[in-house]
Amino acid sequence: MNASSPDGRAPTPRLLDLARGARFCDRDLDVRADDLIAGAALADEAPRLEGKSVLLSVSTQVHAAVGMLELDGLVCRLVVAPADLARDHLAAVIDDAGVDFIVTDTPEKFEGARTTTIRLTLPLGKTDATVPRRHETQWTLLTSGTSGRPKMVAHSLAALAGAIPPRTKADESVVWATFYDIRRYGGLQMFLRAMIGGTPIVLTSVGESLVDHLRRLGAAGVTSISGTPSHWRRVLMTAERGAFAPAYVRLSGEIADQNVLDALRAAFPKASIGHAYASTEAGVAFAVDDGREGFPVSLVETPRNEVVLRIDGGTLKIRSPRTASRYIGPDAPRLFDSDGFVDTGDLVERRGDRFVFVGRRGGIINVGGLKVNPEEVESVINAHPAVRMSLVRAKKNPVTGALVAADIVLENDARAETVRDSILELCAKKLERHKAPAILRFVPSLPLTPAGKLRRDMTPAPEESADA
Amino acid sequence: MDVQAIVFEEIAEVAARQKKTLQPFNVDSPLLGIGLDSLCFAILVARLEERFGVDPFEDPENDSMPMTIGDLVNMYERVVA
Predict the structure, then answer these.
(1) Between A and B, how many residue pairs show a Cβ–Cβ distance under 8 A?
(2) Residue-wise pLDDT tens digits, A199-210
(3) Architecture of the domain made up of B3-79
(4) How much is the ipTM here?
């Protein structure tokens, strides 16, 4: 790989340089960015990583944060493994990203892998090694692909940080927190925002209850905090939300509907509440802070900050300096159309002076931030001997945003009351919990397109029953 | 209609289907403290919508989320005729 900036832009400073004075903590560890300058977490191994392609696969968010700060500028490509990267996908990620080393706090997990592991150690040790950070590191994030196999999305640090304002005096009184995991785009935005602002950020810990987490946020004096609408609905269902009083509440990652915005307004009357639109591929596109769902039509008519929005066949497309560079891997699809727009796949509808989000093209269902491909669920249901065909769709839900619902056509001799439980058992066995249908409806037929495909844009309305 | 009895019955049913161990609870118990996670509550609310034929979360007058079991029961009591 090429060591310097491939597109001729001025080199960006290293994340570690930008992060002077910043710190981050979880339940167990508190780390100052300034203490990482000597590469202490990698002991004397850092020079081996120079210019290499590295997979960062760690067990906690603080380890992830340390890895990102240590590796930006040192390695050529930094692939950030999410917490839930399935072992089945590991080999493909390593091959497709040409990974030379795995940096991890748990090398024992990779025994038998052909790739050499390098240990990331916390708390920090002492080292005399000088770490060369002269590369324009390509950051690679994973996003859930529709077929279950993750897609790898390449970014520059400049694009990732493109929506983050430079450090100001006001940052001195800010304490960030996020309900997200920083190994995904939404959480990484908040992590970078805190690092560039030189502020503390409070991260989540594995296995920590929401009540304990909220108390920790309160004790840390958190002022600014982000999460998905589903994260926030959980907070709203918890009396300990009174443990902290954020001045800024931010939502992104799912549709922020009027209900959740109003409930947050009532719960945090003094806070400024904003919702942002961002995706791994399209980057941060815009933020809305007027307390209303959707976004103003004027954002489409008058581009702001070089971000151009286009509504094409009801779908939102975005052209912006903050979009990803490309997908990585063989058979990787093109990220941009011929005009340089990223197709978000998010469907919008105009209502008066607003565009509101109405779902995903292709029917992808978002259950509390976890994506569900309807075809995957249908293939499990259809494997049941009593099922002729099925259609899986989203059902709106006030807790998780949506739940999975299935409309099922049975074989002629099958009776709903006798097969209902066995279909649910099959789904529970074959699918992750959030993918298993919560609602089954038995219908006489399903609508098809003239081409004979299931019509995903309409649903019949016979008897319905919740079953999970 | 005994709304509370139906809510309690559905809580037990969701816990059994989701293989969660329920803590003993009453109307004062915090929603997220009885052994059900947020996916369980999402399913519970979908089931209650089926049972009662209404979704009180869609009520435009409602701008708060329930925090206790009693809050949840009250939400349905208000909208079930």
Answers:
(1) 84
(2) 999 999 998 988
(3) Orthogonal Bundle (1.10)
(4) 0.93
